[in-house]
Write a structure and sequence with these properties.
Layout (H helix, E strand, L loop, with lengths): L1 E9 L3 H6 L5 E2 L2 E17 L4 H4 L2 E8 L2 E13 L2 E10 L4 H6 L6 H10 L5 E17 L2 E15 L2 E12 L4 H14 L3 E2 L4 H9 L4
Antiparallel strand pairs: 1-6, 1-9, 1-10, 2-3, 3-4, 3-7, 4-5, 5-6, 7-8, 8-9
Length: 209
């Protein structure tokens, strides 16, 4: 289990989205461009959207030749810094097998069961994300990972596109994470984002009742 510490923003338009990767330095960190890769996330919930309401994320991510099952639970956060406990396991399960419950004994499922008991899952949201990754380094050592996400949400309420920016700590401090967020906000028209793509996507196209 890992602790994920990050700060998140929404980006209003493609022009700003395309300007950020052109920075050779961000908040005194040297940028190292890792390029763009696509991943597809299938999110799951219960019929009554318990995971959405309890801020639990349970998803299957497919990227290149890997499929990762992930369970995330939110830790109390403050001042725009989000912390979540993240448990993941590589698998060859399909979304249909996740919903059927006919899957191997994987740690993310055990975490979910401990939280919610024996629940039936349904597919609630699909997210296609073209992710541009940039490392923020000093002396060739990465301290933070900045990602620019071009996201398409698809749910029961239709399809919606958004642009987001996230900065996640690798070895950097929370104080430095705040400094990077302020640096970005001062130079670009960024708005604070919510705690997870799942909540945002469900608010936009999930038809949550």
């Amino acid at each position: 289990m890992e602790i994920e510490t990050e700060i998140k923003f929404t980006i209003p338009d493609k022009e700003i989205f395309n300007r950020v990767p052109k920075c050779t330095e961000i908040a005194s960190y040297t940028t190292v461009d890792r390029g763009v890769k696509q991943h597809i996330d299938t999110y799951f919930d219960t019929d009554g959207f318990r995971l959405y309401h309890e801020k639990v994320v349970f998803r299957l991510r497919t990227s290149e030749n890997r499929t990762i099952l992930v369970c995330k639970t939110q830790i109390p956060s403050e001042n725009g810094i989000y912390r979540r406990e993240e448990t993941e396991a590589e698998t060859d399960c399909t979304p249909e097998e996740v919903c059927s419950g006919n899957i191997p004994d994987l740690q993310p499922f055990r975490i979910l069961h401990d939280l919610l008991g024996d629940v039936r899952l349904i597919q609630s949201l699909c997210v296609i994300n073209n992710r541009h990754t940039i490392l923020l380094c000093r002396n060739d050592e990465p301290y933070f990972e900045l990602v620019l996400d071009d996201v398409t949400f698809t749910g029961h309420g239709g399809t919606h596109k958004v642009l987001e920016l996230e900065v996640e700590s690798i070895t950097g401090t929370t104080e430095d994470l705040h400094h990077i967020g302020k640096w970005l906000s001062d130079r670009f028209d960024l708005k604070p984002a919510g705690p997870s793509k799942y909540i945002l996507g469900m608010d936009l196209v999930g038809n949550v009742e």
